[in-house]
Amino acid sequence: MTAAEIKGILQKWITETDDLNVLKKVQTYFSMVKTKDADWWDTIDEYQRKEIETGICQLNEGKGIPYENVKEKAQKLISKRK
């Protein structure tokens, strides 16, 4: 697919949507790519920020699960599927 074809598809999608949330995310993404100095935190919505902050608070309260435990559990689940 050529750059012109991709641009055409993107333009069509953007023109056809009235979803303000989608349009804002596209705008934020292009702004970030253009400046390359943008902080990813500024590209996520309020819900995502709150979820991250909740997770950090849980970790600070000792409610986190060690990486090795998660890794072991994931490996067991993957092994069961095989």
Query: Roughly how many Å apart are the termini?
Result: 36 Å
Q: Please identify the structural class as seen in this structure.
A: mainly alpha
* Number of helices, counting only DSSP H or I runs of 4 residues or more: 4
Instruction: List how many beta strands DSSP finds.
Output: 0
Describe the sheet with the most strands: none
* Run of helices and strands: HHHH
Strand proportion? under 5%
- Which segments are poorly predicted (pLDDT under 50) over 5 or more consecutive residues? none
Q: Residue-averaged pLDDT, rounded?
A: 89
Envelope shape: extended
**Overall domain count:** 2
Helix content: over 70%
Radius of gyration: 20 Å
Keywords:
extended; mainly alpha; 73% helix
Structure description:
With 82 residues, this protein is mostly helical. The protein folds into two domains: 1-41, no CATH class; 44-82, no CATH class. The protein is 73% helix and 0% strand. It is built from four helices and no strands. The chain has helices at residues 3-16, 20-35, 46-60, 67-81. The chain starts with a helix and ends with a helix. The model has no long low-confidence stretch (mean pLDDT 89).
Would you kindly provide a brief summary of this structure?
With 82 residues, this protein is mostly helical. The chain is built from 4 helices and no strands.
